[in-house]
Design a protein that fits this description.
Helices cover 14% and strands 10% of the residues. The chain has 58 residues and is mostly loops. The chain has one domain. A two-stranded antiparallel ribbon has the order 1-2. Strand 1 and strand 2 form a beta hairpin. The radius of gyration is 17 Å and the shape is elongated. It starts with 17 loop residues before the first strand and ends in a 23-residue tail after the last helix.
Length: 58
């Protein structure tokens, strides 16, 4: 019998899985990341705005 795998990271689930609807996750962190908002291009909300690495010159 094959072990269940996390629907987010694909790692085998040891112990009791975290369930969210029909999906199962290996940890609360994977469940959270899987449910974060994504835009139509598949980018997560953390990838939308670039980071500013130096001050803007005016």
């Amino acid at each position: 019998m094959e072990a269940m795998r996390c629907d987010y990271c694909g790692e085998p689930i040891e112990g009791e899985p975290i369930r969210r609807g029909e999906r199962v996750y290996c940890s609360e962190a994977c469940a959270y990341e899987a449910l974060r908002s994504k835009d139509c291009g598949g980018r997560s909300d953390s990838n939308i705005a670039p980071r500013i690495t130096e001050p803007i010159k005016r």
